[in-house]
Amino acid sequence: MKINPWLLLGIAIVFEIIGTSLLKLSDGFTRVFIGIIAVAMYGVSTWMLSITLTQIPVAISYAIWSGVGILAITLIGFVAFKQNLGGMQILCIALIAIGAIGLNLTTQTETPDIAASQTGSS
């Protein structure tokens, strides 16, 4: 069964967001169990990201993974952790979002066979 790489990338992003939120809640790893769960979430996220790299170019996957993660963590920081941002910071984060959306709309996924033929392996 082949999973849509964009869906898998979305799931990877969710795990990264959970990991980052838990890392904040671990209070500098003084709450060890929460910190360990955060590291596990990062591990799952990275594993899923690595699978998407078989079909989506690394520059695109990573840009979207990072950009969407930044946006989500910014919102979580504002809502859950009562952190505030200045106008220029909000503008820069919005530019990241625009870039991630643009990359998603202009990128075609690769099949593993095409990717292998481009590197000369079979």
TrEMBL record:
Keyword DNA-binding annotated: no
Entry's transmembrane regions: 6-25, 32-53, 59-81, 88-105
Subcellular localization, as worded in the UniProt entry: Cell membrane
Family named by the database record: Belongs to the drug/metabolite transporter (DMT) superfamily. Small multidrug resistance (SMR) (TC 2.A.7.1) family.
An annotated GO BP: xenobiotic detoxification by transmembrane export across the plasma membrane
Membrane topology: Multi-pass membrane protein
Major location category of this protein: membrane
Cellular component per GO, a single term: plasma membrane
Protein keywords: Cell membrane, Membrane, Transmembrane, Transmembrane helix, Transport
SUPFAM superfamilies (UniProt xref): Multidrug resistance efflux transporter EmrE
Lineage: Bacteria, Pseudomonadati, Pseudomonadota, Alphaproteobacteria, Sphingomonadales
Protein name: Multidrug efflux SMR transporter
InterPro entries (UniProt xref): EmrE-like (IPR037185), Small_drug/metabolite_transptr (IPR000390), Small_multidrug_res (IPR045324)
Naturally occurring in which organism (per UniProt): Alterisphingorhabdus coralli
UniProt KW Magnesium keyword: no
GO molecular function: transmembrane transporter activity
Domain of life: Bacteria
